[in-house]
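hey can u run this one w/ S-adenosylmethionine bound, need the structure tokens asap thx
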Amino acid sequence: MAVTFVLYAHATRRGKFAVWEELLDELELRGDEQLLDLGCGRGAVLLAGARRLPKGRAVGVDLWRGVDQSGNAQSATSRNAQAEGVHSRVELRTGDLRDVPFSEGEFDVVLSSLAIHNIKDVEGRRRAVAEAVRVLRPGGRLVIVDIGRSVPLYGDILGALPVSGLGVRSLGWRMWWGGPWMRTRVVTASRTVG
Ligand SMILES: C[S@@+](CC[C@H](N)C(=O)[O-])C[C@H]1O[C@@H](n2cnc3c(N)ncnc32)[C@H](O)[C@@H]1O
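ok here u go:
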């Protein structure tokens, strides 16, 4: 019981942030990219991305559902962006991941952290993954981090979409939500050029 608690607390307070810093390192951003975070919530990943984009833009889309994250509100994320000094390059939009309010090919990087599993039905998750690819420019990079049995489904869905370099891997104990039975995986891919 104590181990479960410690692992959960570590994943929430430190593990998630440390792992995302490494995932962002892997992207080798230039600093002028257009980045979209699908289901940004209070901004843990969105703001980490914005810190790396002095000449770019970090956009967060969310429905701000309190049931999925405590204290979830656009105003809270906006305050967090201000506190981190990245407010000028952060844009927040209210929108559904199944119908993202952006044009095709608008983003260099699309991220999503622990959000798509909150969509309860498979068709909704399929639409969210398809939307993530739609708004990526050719050659743009996709990183989906999530829990649960639907993660392999994201790989299957992406296999039928215009992407290359598809990979799925576990993110290790730092993102175990209490134990290995609730582990986190990452799905990565690039939008096909041409
Ligand atoms: C567990 S929180 C994760 C927040 C943030 N990405 C992070 O890692 O800290 C899941 C987020 O997904 C959002 N969300 C769930 N379903 C959504 C949907 N259909 N469209 C937009 N956002 C959604 C929730 O409002 C919530 O902010």
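Residues 2-191 form a domain with the Rossmann fold fold (CATH 3.40.50.150). anyway lmk if its weird
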